[in-house]
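for the recovery benchmark. tokens below, seq after
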């Protein structure tokens, strides 16, 4: 293990002392939840050269299943399985974790594959925000969380996919830290730091570094605020790389040193009875044809019957390459 992160591991080991647990051993309490969704999608893409391409599709877009096993108030685990209708038709394990909550400590320890606390990503939309595209990370990791009063602190360590040139790539060298403050029932703020934003799901893939190396690690930062009043919910979040990548390190940089960043704002109005309407506005910089320069969206959600929901979303996405996409998505979602 990289010794600069040994302190986080030591906290976890100490918290697992047998004296922090109490109660008889018994069979875990099993539960499940999930959903099936079917999407109708209508898309028009206008390329920078003026070419228009239209398409439409109707498909079962996702089956999602979460299995929980709760042994006690201190020990539990869950696994999330996803089928997204890809060409290989496979079922993926999205998360697989053991969660330990030592008694009377305020600590929560998460071990396994899970989403790291790189940002809040609060959203009412079906489509991912550009912040998710830029910074989201799911990894095999250990996350230590601590809650006291209005504050929640989280720290994660993991072995990232992207390393500095000449560095050994088989070490635990990734760190994410987050502070969240629930100031009152209606107002919350938070901030996160990520030691290597190139480890995000997008930037580490074929659209970014593509499993390669970078000359120098670039950290990432996020800050968010959420405020609710009357029937409204407002969410704003800013995510950015803290320095420029070297020319050519990102597949979409077009021969320029890029420092990707995104600002997302959403406003939601509660119509009552689990129905709502929401709007989205996003701006981005240094995203090429991967992270949008401007996004405008609107969504309407309403229940139809027990466990059955209808959603309609329109989103316009503009890239700095002058490509533009208009997409209308209609969804039926069955929750169980």
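predicted aa per position
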């Amino acid at each position: 293990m990289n010794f600069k992160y040994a302190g986080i591991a030591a906290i976890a080991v100490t918290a697992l002392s047998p004296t922090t647990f109490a109660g008889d051993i018994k069979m875990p309490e099993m539960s499940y939840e999930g959903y099936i969704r079917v999407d109708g999608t209508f898309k028009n893409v206008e390329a920078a050269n003026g070419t228009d391409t239209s398409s439409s599709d109707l498909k079962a877009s996702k089956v999602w299943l979460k299995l929980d096993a709760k042994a006690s108030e201190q020990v539990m685990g869950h696994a999330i399985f996803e089928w997204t209708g890809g060409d290989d038709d496979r079922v993926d394990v999205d998360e697989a974790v053991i969660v330990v909550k030592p008694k009377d400590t305020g600590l929560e320890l998460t071990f396994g594959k899970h989403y790291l606390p790189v940002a809040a990503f609060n959203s009412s939309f079906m489509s991912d925000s550009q912040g998710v595209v830029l910074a989201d990370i799911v990894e095999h990791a250990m996350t230590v969380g601590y809650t006291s009063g209005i504050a929640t602190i989280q720290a994660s360590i993991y072995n990232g996919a992207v390393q500095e040139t000449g560095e050994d790539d088989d070490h635990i060298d990734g760190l994410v830290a987050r502070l969240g403050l629930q100031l009152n029932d209606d107002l919350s703020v938070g901030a996160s730091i990520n030691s290597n934003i190139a480890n995000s799901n997008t930037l580490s893939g074929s659209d970014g570094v593509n499993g390669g190396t970078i000359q120098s690690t670039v950290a990432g930062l996020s800050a968010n605020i959420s405020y609710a009043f009357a029937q409204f919910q407002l969410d704003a979040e800013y995510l950015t790389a803290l320095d420029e990548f070297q020319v050519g390190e990102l597949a979409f940089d077009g021969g320029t040193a890029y420092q990707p960043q995104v600002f997302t704002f959403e406003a939601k109005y509660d119509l009552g009875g689990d129905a709502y309407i929401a709007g989205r506005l996003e701006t981005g910089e240094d995203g090429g044809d991967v992270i949008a320069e401007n996004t405008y969206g609107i969504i309407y959600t309403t229940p139809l019957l027990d466990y059955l929901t209808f959603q309609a979303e329109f989103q316009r996405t503009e890239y700095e390459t002058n490509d533009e996409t208009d997409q209308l998505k209609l969804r039926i979602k069955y929750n169980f």
